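Aim 2 progress update. The chain analyzed this quarter is reproduced below.
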Amino acid sequence: MMDWNDLQYVLALKEGGTMKQAAILLRTDPTTVSRHIKRIAIHFETDLFKMQKGGKWVLTTQGEELTTLAKNFKKGLDQFQLGEGGSTECETIVITSLEFLLTHYLSPKIESGMNCFPDTKLSLVAADRRLSLAYGEADIALRFGRPTEGHLITSKIADISFDLVQLRGTKPKEWIGLQEDLDWTPDMRRGVGHFGKPPILRVSSYAAAREAAIATGHATVGPSVIMREGGQLETMPDTSPVHREVWSVIHETRRLSQRLAAVRTWIKNAVLEMQLQQHNMA
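Predicted structure tokens:
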């Protein structure tokens, strides 16, 4: 008898393209991925993948048919569990984002979130890497900028402002930024554009950047909600905020989930309410 859990390995190899990348998506090893792929191919007595030049695995016609079946099965199961008249079994919804969004915008409103839909629990997971929505690592992701990859349902939540800041009463000539893999972000580009050079110090979070700026007297850039804490830092003269869009993202197979719709509505309202509070306190 076929194990439906094997299908996640087929879907992961389709997305990753290689055994190694599929293993990373599923947090396992390439040997395990290969073993499950072979097992399901034996069950159906057909090759599900073929290797192209460069070592990339692509689905055969039979493999495409199987993944379509798997997606439809999961979609039907979601509708049965979450649709009207379906099961009301308690479910934990995993929301993933950068830590500061969870800390400053969702956590203060978590009580209303826990009550936004019957038999629903929430789990807020801070992660620098993107957790997979397709393979169940997370149910909802909050991302900066509208995602362009396929099979995702997106909705804009808000604009978050980022400021270039300095210690009050100083005129810094150096600045503090995040790690190099984030040099592409608008806020990091603002720092490079203003100072004409990379940061003298790099840290792993906006909160760390704020503390380092206070300790060293160097400038830094980050979300206004973090940089305004304590009042030690001020916006640098002749600079304007950088605005970045925050989007709520789910996988297309969860499109009809009433539970996810309710949680996404709570997320949007929570962010807007916290922004209003922050504006009134500024």
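The first strand starts at residue 49 and ends at 51. Residues 258-281 form the longest helix (24 residues). These observations will guide the mutagenesis experiments scheduled for the next reporting period.
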